[in-house]
Design goal:
The protein is an alpha+beta fold and about 700 residues long. The chain has three domains: about 220 residues, no CATH class; about 200 residues, no CATH class; about 210 residues, no CATH class. It contains 16 helices and 31 strands. The protein has a 31-stranded mixed beta sheet that branches. Helix 5 crosses helix 6 and helix 10 packs antiparallel against helix 11. The longest helix is centred in the N-terminal third of the chain and has 27 residues. The radius of gyration is 40 Å and the shape is elongated. The relative contact order is 0.04.
Length: about 700
């Protein structure tokens, strides 16, 4: 049997390949020898080199007083230092950024070159950590380099930590925040729980003290697979916050869903801690999911209650320069009208227990006033910008039915806009554009509120009036501009116009005739059993010109089927005084007509009706004189309305034009609607006797 042929001789490597092979072998041997030397010596001889390089790179003094180790074990970097100190910049209030009796860590090598630093284990003993921003918020103690702008705190990923006797201090002058935390290591006997890093502390944010406590629970590695549970509870003022979640590592909260809940007496106090101003609330309880991503805090799936109202939605807080920004989309299905009181400055608790007048007084308003003197939070408006979309299904109110509220709010560098603010009211629609410009002082306020045609019957029904027999509608607009840091002050300086237009429709005879004091017609209707017979309104205008906070009738003119109702006088936003008078002149002759002004006086909080006017007393005196000195029948003549009222041209009325533009149906200028001015209401400080003495001048005397 022939022998197998010898194998072919291997071709020797070329010279370049031999060189490359030898280099690789040499590098591997060198790395192995370096690893072996470091492993045997534990890298203790690198202590001085480490101090020099670390000090040069950080521009801080870095020193190790005791034992030092730096080596691969076997792949991860094992670092140990006793008496390690890293100094702080000269501007800080503490000498050291970090000082520790001992630190022992195992670090993923590639994480030091690529991506986020990754600590497999970290053991700290008797450490102090001082984190501080400068007053200009341009530098902080943990960002190395004297010319490097301060960066947000970026903690490494830590899988498992043992912390004992460690204290952390954080100071931020711009946020007016200081907190001191202490850490203690506790080992649980639970089979599923290994080490737990527990911490507690206290501090101040702005002028509010707070305390907090919590734990980072590190489950057994075979069960947890690197997951750690965070449990935190904090108390500030009258608010309590709970936060829980599962972290991929002990110090990694980026992009991790956390469950947060809060409860307390006033949600405004809670947000006020970070300088964000919202209207105050009654007792609240809310819960949401929080995800932090870089400088963005996203709160989603928010649910809860404040007072007797519900709340849902979400919001995002971005910590950016020059001001933090809040974007929110919130929904309330049912809003208690008392819970809405803070939107105009009332304390809802006072409103609920004592009423609007007491709530206004609590803000500094004068006696028997209802406009609050609560100032806009000008200082807080400097701290943040905001965009809000808030919708409300139904507002629970005893009188006026309000629903479908839709509010768009924007705040940009102290310019606050509620535009648009819309809601349904008694089957009508109110649309508002309101702005407060706090960039100038005092604040410039602008109000533009429009009422679409709204059934009068639905409005009156809220005050106990039957809707049947009333088909009239009302529409209107309020346009005012004023200056002042409170609602009262901005209205007390306001200028503009208020107009309510009543197009053609019908009203109850009882309501209209009582207003006209046409006693004969009212009695006749009542005896005939026709109390609800409708009276036709041809057109009507209740208009006011507002100058320096005083509103003067301009004009009040309502043209009905049988009479013309006119009014004069006005009211004052300064002292909330009312001084109006209404009179009806018949288009047809009527016996027993009072033909005398009905006065509306008092204040916004306590309006009064003056039926027995001086004119009625004079007419009664005249009738009595005629009855005594002539015949009893002659006394009736003093109460006869000859029916000479001139019908109103409805064009200028429906166009809401001022008194000077009003005409009769024959085109003649009206001489019974005044000139849109009033003398008395402009002085909110006169005494009662002075007001009585000027009554004729104010009312213009009919």
């Amino acid at each position: 049997m022939p022998a197998d042929p010898p194998p072919p001789a291997r071709k020797p490597l070329s010279r370049p390949w031999r060189i490359a092979r030898n280099v690789v072998i040499g590098v591997v041997l060198a790395l192995f020898l370096a690893w072996l030397v470091l492993y045997i010596t534990k890298g203790r001889f690198l202590k001085g080199t480490f101090e020099r390089i670390a000090s040069a790179q950080t521009e801080r003094r870095v020193s190790v007083a005791g034992d030092f180790q730096l080596y691969f074990d076997p792949i991860t970097i094992h670092f140990r230092a006793e008496g390690l100190r890293v100094s702080n910049p000269a501007w800080t209030s503490k000498p050291d950024l970090y000082a520790a009796k001992a630190i022992d860590a195992r670090i993923a090598p590639l994480s030091l070159l690529f991506g986020k630093r990754h600590f497999h284990t970290l053991d700290l003993a008797d450490s102090t950590i001082d984190l501080e921003w400068n007053r200009a918020h341009t530098q902080n103690s943990w960002t190395f380099g004297s010319k490097t702008k301060g960066k947000p705190l970026d903690l490494p990923r830590i899988d498992l930590a043992t912390v004992k006797g460690t204290a952390l201090r954080y100071v931020d002058p711009r946020m007016r925040l200081r907190t001191d935390l202490t850490f203690a290591s506790v080992t649980s006997s639970d089979a599923r729980i290994g080490d737990a890093v527990r911490f507690s502390g206290s501090g101040h944010i702005r002028d509010t003290p707070f305390t907090l406590r919590g734990a980072l629970l590190s489950p057994n590695a075979t069960v947890a697979r690197g997951r750690n549970k965070l449990v935190l509870a904090a108390d500030a003022a009258n608010d309590h916050i709970d936060l829980t979640g599962t972290l991929p590592s002990l110090a990694e909260i980026e992009d991790v869903p956390l469950q947060v809940s809060a409860r307390g007496r006033n949600l405004a106090d809670l947000l006020g801690i970070i300088g964000v101003a919202i209207p105050m609330t009654r007792d609240y309880r809310v819960a949401a999911q929080l995800v932090k991503s870089d400088t963005t805090y996203d709160f989603t799936k928010l649910t809860g209650r404040f007072g007797n109202s519900d709340l849902a939605g979400g919001f995002t807080v971005k910590v950016i320069e020059p001001r933090l920004h809040i974007a929110a989309k919130l929904t309330t299905r049912s809003l208690d009208i008392v819970d809405a009181a803070p939107f105009i400055g009332y304390n809802p608790d006072v409103v609920a227990t004592k009423g609007a007048v007491a709530a206004a007084a609590a803000t500094g308003a004068g006696p028997a006033r209802i406009l609050p003197d609560a100032a806009l939070p000008i200082d807080a408006l400097k701290n943040f910008d905001a965009d809000l979309r808030y919708t409300i299904g139904v507002v629970k109110s005893r009188n006026v039915p309000i629903s479908d509220v839709d509010l768009t709010l924007s705040l940009k560098d102290r310019l606050l806009k509620l535009s648009p603010l819309t809601f349904a009211m008694a089957r009508g629609r109110v649309t508002s554009d309101i702005a407060f410009n706090a960039r100038t002082r005092p604040t410039q306020a602008r109000y533009d509120i429009r009422l679409s045609p709204t059934p009068m019957a639905r409005l009156l029904a809220g005050y106990g009036v039957d809707e049947a027999g009333t088909s009239g509608v009302i529409k209107g607009r309020l346009q005012l501009q004023g200056v002042g840091d409170t609602l009262h002050d901005s209205l007390a300086t306001a200028r503009g116009r208020i107009a309510l237009v009543i197009p053609k429709g019908t009203f109850w005879t009882r309501n209209v005739q009582l207003a006209e004091l046409d006693i004969g017609t009212f009695a006749q209707k009542m005896f005939q059993g026709r109390l609800k017979e409708p009276v036709r309104i041809n057109c009507g205008l209740i208009g006011f010109s507002v100058r320096n906070g005083v509103a003067a009738a301009d004009p009040i003119l309502i043209d009905t089927e049988k009479s013309v109702i006119v009014g004069r006088g006005g009211f004052s936003f300064k002292n909330e005084a009312l001084d109006l008078a209404f009179r009806a002149d018949g288009k047809r002759i009527s016996i027993f007509s009072g033909q005398s002004p009905v006065g509306l006086n008092g204040s916004f909080a306590k309006p009064g009706i003056d039926v027995i006017s001086p004119q009625l007393i004079e007419r009664a005196g005249l009738g009595l004189g005629l009855a005594v000195f002539a015949t009893p029948v002659a006394g009736v003549l003093a109460f006869v309305d000859v029916g000479d009222a001139k019908s109103a041209a409805c064009g200028p009325v429906l166009a809401a034009q001022p008194a000077t533009a009003q005409r009769t149906t024959k085109g003649a200028p009206r001489d019974d609607v005044g000139r849109g001015t009033t003398a008395k209401a402009e002085d909110g400080n006169k005494t009662s006797s002075e007001r009585k003495g000027q009554r004729k001048k104010f009312l213009g005397i009919f």
